[in-house]
Amino acid sequence: TDVSPDSYYYKAVLWAVEQGITSGVTKTAFAPDRVCTRAQAAVLLWRAEGSPAASGTHDFRDVAEGAYYADAVAWAVENGITMGTSATTFSPDATVTRAQVVTFLWRANGQPAAWNSGFTDVSADAYYAKAVAWAVQNGITTGTGFGVFSPDAACTRAQIVTFLYRYLG
């Protein structure tokens, strides 16, 4: 009931639910504006990629064996999608930023070359600069308006499923 047919994320939410990537927070609510954690982002990408098994392990002390996101994080580490927030932490409960999400997608796609994104808030030497440029060039994002991407802003459920839909849908 909280996903209007005229919202920018409507088709993305329908696709994500149909694909089993996500569900609502209740039977009647998706909570599109709720921010996501790093663990949730890893799980959504992992599910979007078909929930592949990971053969490797990781050294993150804050990812408990058996946690709902443990397999997703192991897969993401094995595939070079994330290196964590340090050598020993993933920070699963930290809010995931827009820059982190597009960087995960870019790495999942093999880190292809990309030119400048054109966003005034994405400096050329930022760790996410190529990822954002790639996302723009591939129609995954158009930013948040007025020539900005808002890399440090929390990524919402609507934004993540929209990024995934435009990437894979």
Task: Give the SSE map.
Layout: H1 10-18, H2 38-48, H3 70-78, H4 98-108, H5 129-137, H6 157-168
Helix pairs in contact: 1-6, 2-3, 2-4, 2-6, 4-5, 4-6
The residue fraction in helices comes out at 25-40%
Radius of gyration of CA atoms, rounded to a whole number: 15 Å
Mean pLDDT: 95
Distance between the termini: 23 Å
Q: In this structure, how is the largest beta sheet organized?
A: none
Q: What order do the helices and strands follow?
A: HHHHHH
- Uncertain parts: none
Overall 3D form: globular
What proportion strand? under 5%
Query: How many strands in all?
Result: 0
Counted by DSSP, the helix tally is 6
Query: What is the structural class?
Result: mainly alpha
Report on this model:
By secondary structure, the protein is mostly helical. The chain contains 6 helices and no strands. It starts with 9 loop residues before the first helix and ends with a helix. Helix 2 packs across helix 3, helix 4 (98-108) packs across helix 5 and helix 4 (98-108) runs parallel beside helix 6 (157-168). Helices cover 36% and strands 0% of the residues. The chain has helices at 10-18, 38-48, 70-78, 98-108, 129-137, 157-168.
Task: Give a short synopsis of this structure.
With 169 residues, the protein is mainly alpha-helical. It has six helices and no strands. The longest helix is centred in the C-terminal third of the chain and has 12 residues.
